[in-house]
Amino acid sequence: MDKEYFGAMLDMSRNAVMKPEEVKNYAKVLKSFGYNMLMLYTEDTYEVNGEPYFGYMRGRYTKEELKDVDAYCASIGVELIPCIQTLAHLGNIFRWGEYGDINDVNDILLAEDERTYKLIDNIFSTLAECFKTRNVHIGMDEAHMLGLGKYLDLHGMKNRFEILVNHLKKVSEIAAKYGFKPMMWSDMFFRLANHGEYYVGKNAHIPQEVIDITPKEVGLVYWDYYHDKKQPFADMIKAHKQFDNEIWFAGGAWSWTGFASSNFYTLQTMKPAMKACRENGLNKIFLTLWGDNGKECSFYSLLPSLYAVRKFYEGEENMNVIKAGFKEVTGEDFDAMVALDIPNLVGGAKNVFQNLGKNSLYRDLLNNYYDSTLYDEIVKTVPDEYKRHARRLSRLAKNSANYGYIFKSSAALCDMLSVKFSLGYNIRKAYENKDRDGLKRAVDEIKKAEVKLEKFYYAFRELWYKENKPHGFDVQDIRLGGLKMRLRSTRERISDFLDGKIAKIDELDEELLDVYCGKCDPKKPVGCFLWSWNVSVNNI
Predict the structure, then answer these.
(1) Torsions phi, psi of 252, nearest 5?
(2) Which CATH architecture does the domain made up of 339-535 adopt?
(3) pTM of the model
(4) Which of 19, 22, 172, 427 has the greatest CB tally within 10 Å of its CB?
């Protein structure tokens, strides 16, 4: 039987680049869980021979750092595999004139261009120098606009699947030149063959001509983070087996919904996923830990899920046994670490996509359009929930052997939200009811929020600098610093209104509409993990 892989993929491309020593520590923990592989997802955050602008000022890993981490991982029996991009998800490089001519559209490289393949050749020459493995993940996912930008201008309309496959063949040739065996995300094959759909399951139809022209040396990585029943996973695995290619499965350890982890949703989805993989003979599996929109969440907060999912794959589903094993291996309490989920789990929230911790933090107090999802009962109860959570997380911080700083940051966030969560809603209501005393109280509450924000900022900064290189924290400074000034500005505006210096507060005179336009339950607190969507409807 071919080699079994069970690993994790850490996103190093969304502002945060983990310190090399933290990567090595993470690999050591994973090894203790029974993992034998670690992927570093780096879009442009690694040094590339002959490409000084690639990852410039992004905290990219140097070749020396990659070699050091690779050597350490090899010494403990963990295969370090580069996980890169060779088509899309390269938006950061296109800010530099060096790469302007090879930008097809959005974040996509220009296929069939000599400079594109020079860049990719330089990438592989660097990987060959820095990694012992000859496995490589070449990405190539979500290139939905492939061939519809500069490529269209140069070559006219062409079959987009042929563009994809021809580019893939060229990348595979370059990989083979340096001895690499590539794998890639499989969604583009399915989407182009099924009118944009990926999770088509038992209804998947891959035309034989598509199967025939897909390079057989390329492994296909089926990624799925969303289903909570076994059958959809099993159906998609069978659909992938229509190809003659090696099949990998990538699940999700939910680290990308803001400041808080989502162990609960990871366990809910990955338990049936592992059963489907086991029953269908898949033995190449990894869990993705993404850092979308700022990577606020510590990857360590997902350790309970990473341990449990490995046990699920082995056939162990008794959570008492799993929790005891986790304690024995890590010295940490399983349920205590799962409590790092709770900044998102207030007001009865059960849905991972509600993202209440991040949304509530950045939601504006005047342009507070997400407050259309709030109502009196939620507004009255959630602040007390956050107070309780803050106290609990503070206690857990003292009991954690290794991760007290993560609990401390989470506790400070909950403490901040115990004041801010309902503040915008209460300000609008007091203004509409001409309740001057209510507005005066709001001014005092904003002052409290400003103090608590300062405490959260320093706790979160401690977490960031403990785990990550400093690059990327400029984004957090800008976001949290902007929030600080906006709180102050709002407080001053309300005070000016109360003092008669301004006749009205224009934003609060505008009717609050249902943010989801009637397409979702208006009585459910919901948010978005994108900072820009939470903070303002104006251009950012």
Answers:
(1) -125, 125
(2) Up-down Bundle (1.20)
(3) 0.96
(4) 427
CA 12/CA 120 separation, integer angstroms: 19
Q: 529 is written with which tokens? A: 């993990």
Q: What is the DSSP string of 114-180?
A: HHHHHHHHHHHHHHHHH-S--EEE------TTTTSSHHHHHH-S--HHHHHHHHHHHHHHHHHHTT-
- Domain positions in the chain: 5-331, 339-535
Q: Residue 248 in 3-state DSSP?
A: strand
Please report, to the nearest 10 degrees, the dihedral formed by the alpha carbons of residues 513, 514, 515, 521 taken in order.
170
Mean pLDDT on 363-372: 90
Residue 330 scores a pLDDT above 80 = yes
CA quadruple 171, 172, 178, 180: dihedral sign = positive
Closest of 104, 108, 116 to residue 87, by C-alpha: 108
CATH fold group of domain 5-331: TIM Barrel (3.20.20)
Under the banding of pLDDT at 50, 70 and 90, the label for residue 214 is confident
Residue 331: φ, ψ to 5°: 80, 0
CA distance 167 to 109: 10
User: By the 8 A CB rule, do 299 and 9 touch?
Assistant: no
From CA 46, how far away is CA 123, in angstroms rounded?
9
